[in-house]
Amino acid sequence: MAAVAPFSIAVDAAVLADLGQRLARVRWPDEIHGSEWRFGASLPYLRSLVDHWRDGYDWRRHEAALNTLPQFMTRIRDVPVHFIHVPGAGPDPAPLLVMHGWPSSVWELQKLIPRLVDPASFGADPKDSFTVIAPSLPGHGFSFTPGQPRLGIAEIADVYADLMIHTVGHERFFTAGGDWGAFISARLGHVCPEHLLGIHLSLLPLPRDAIRPERPTPDERRYFEELDHFLREETGYSWIQGTKPQTLAYALTDSPVGLAAWIVEKFQRWSDCGGDIESIFSKDDLLTNVMIYWVTGAINSSFWPYYARHHEPWPFPPDERITVPTAHAAFPRDIVRQPRAWAERAFDLRRWTDMPVGGHFAAFEQPDLLAADLREFFRTLRPGRRPTG
């Protein structure tokens, strides 16, 4: 069993002083007049964000907020693993592995975790409580040290299986995630289904290069229209991260504004914000997520799952069905939305929820909706529980 040590975030004051100096001497690009977010991160918005970062944002306050959650550090398969581990407040909490993706961090989960750990405090049944284990993805945030081995989805799933089974001691557990967290859940369902009680996905990890039928259903036609737009207009980040990540890393590791632009643009494009990013995310929330990448220097290693996806086989056989009971919460503004029939072929799909609002960052955008769907689906899969009604 890997050694586990309590962990508290404590960023060196010199790192924050250096950041302040860099923010004081930004060299801004120009922008085509009136372009807003059309060609990438908006210059007026980035200026306002950096003004707040420099003069109004308080990292220590958000560092303290993160440190209210019990955190630990261990080492698994030669990589550091930082994880939040919060015992459930109900009578018989079930273990739940909750995962973030890119360009997110454990900060995305800070609103969701209390709703899962202590549902009674949010008007829900205390019997639906979970003991939550929420790691920083290996190579992301505090699960990073310079020069560490790079891990793709298959290797990260192996690390998480070790974490859950051998480090924190849960032989059987639930998983939940979107983005890379959805891929990791599916990989775990493929390699160790006997350890999974259920899987909850807010993104369907299905191949996008499916053969297009001659007579597509309306759902398939809608999906291919959305996919064509996404592939044409929104995948530049994936190609550079998946082919030449090192080159990009120099700019984003050296420039905090460059890093913020790269990350924040995704929160604007992939969320259900109607173009107004602050209708969903506060400046402080956006900056805290960026700060986790900045203070750890982890942006380069966070690119690696993209490189692995471009150069390695699909992380689980696309022609083999995942047999673990699975639910999908379909948020209307997620980046891609595959047809339900495809999900039913790939997973033992027990539940499909068409959410009224929300985008790619479900835990951040709609923690109440996501928590309720998790509780309702996993309720009847808990050991000793049976469906009612």
Structure overview:
The chain has 389 residues and is an alpha/beta fold. The chain has one domain (4-208, 216-379): Rossmann fold. Helix content is 42%, strand content 15%. The protein contains 16 helices and nine strands. A nine-stranded mixed sheet has the order 1-2-3-5-4-6-7-8-9, sandwiched between helices. The longest helix is centred in the middle third of the chain and has 16 residues, at 218-233. The model has no long low-confidence stretch (mean pLDDT 96).
Q: Distance between the terminal alpha carbons, to the nearest Å?
A: 43 Å
Oligomer: single chain
How many domains, in number, for the residues? 1
Strand order of the largest sheet: 1-2-3-5-4-6-7-8-9
Rg, rounded, reads 20 Å
What's the name of the CATH homologous superfamily?
Alpha/Beta hydrolase fold, catalytic domain
Q: Quick one: biggest sheet?
A: 9 strands, mixed
Structural class by sheet pairing and helices = alpha/beta
Number of continuous helical runs: 16
In the CATH hierarchy, the third-tier topology is known as Rossmann fold
Count of DSSP strands: 9
CATH arch. level architecture = 3-Layer(aba) Sandwich
Spell the H/E element sequence: EHHHEEEHEHEHEHHHHHHHEHEHH
Features:
16 helices; Rossmann fold; globular
How are the elements arranged and paired?
Elements: E1 4-7, H1 13-24, H2 43-55, H3 59-66, E2 71-76, E3 79-86, E4 94-99, H4 112-117, E5 130-135, H5 153-167, E6 173-177, H6 180-191, E7 196-201, H7 218-233, H8 236-243, H9 245-254, H10 256-270, H11 283-296, H12 299-302, H13 304-311, E8 322-330, H14 340-346, E9 347-354, H15 362-365, H16 367-379
Parallel strand pairs: 4-5, 4-6, 6-7, 7-8, 8-9
Antiparallel strand pairs: 1-2, 2-3, 3-5
